[in-house]
Predict the structure of MBL fold metallo-hydrolase.
Amino acid sequence: MRIVLLFLLQFGLSAWGNAWALSLSPVPVAPNVYAFIGDTGMRSVENEGMNANSGFVVTDEGVVVIDSGSTWQVAKEIHRAIRAVTRQPVKIVVNTGGQDHRWLGNGYFKSIGAEIIAARPALADMQARGAMQLDGLSQTLGEKAAGTQPVYPDRLFDQSETLRLGGQEIQLLYFHGGHTPGDSVVWLPKQGVLFSGDLVFVDRLLGVLPFSSATDWLASFNVMEKLGPKTIVPGHGQVCDLDRARRDTGDYLRLLITHMKQAVDKGIALQEAIDSLDQSAFSRLANFDLLKGGNASRVYLEMESQ
């Protein structure tokens, strides 16, 4: 089944006094498990900062949401889409990391009584970067960021926590972080479905950012592989299998780390190391030209600091 997210521009809707452009369509991944697949581009007015994937699990005792979206309004749209599937209330929201689209919708879900859970390292990341994230979104989205405020998780877990709700077993797992320090995954062992958060990018090139650790990321990916998921809802890109995740994420991280570690060990300077790195096998991925240079530079500096 083709997994898609429809971004529909709807003008003339006066109920809010403004026309909110984003419309989310939940699509089934497994029985009672749904995903929203976000834009693969950068944050924009059109995608309302929701350039990432999220999802939800329906149980007989309530709904578990995986990632609350980029703003109050996006979270409200996530809830509207959930209510088109089930009348069960949202009981729990899991934030899989500290990127804005993983948690800045928390305020909306908190207002309807949901409990919010995240890995402990994600909280420090949220506290450190939340104001900056909100300022950036406000500058990009304008009025579409209205009502959004940083709202932190109610409950934290260290390495793992198992949620049992309405006959569903949902495992929350933290390995080593990676794209952000608090990246975690949501694992449904019965269905073989993994919501990987930002540990997996497909269809678009992953970003090694100033707060990322490529070595932690690859270590997390290697542990995640051992779960043997049948289906992965990646942090970005279409729903995939493990082989696709390896090709677009694991192999790319391994290339960056191996090349830059060898360059540092040989005393090769930064620019020469970047120039000699052949990333062309990944040029098929969206945002390749935008991100490849920064990725190479930051991994070199990471290897140099070890």
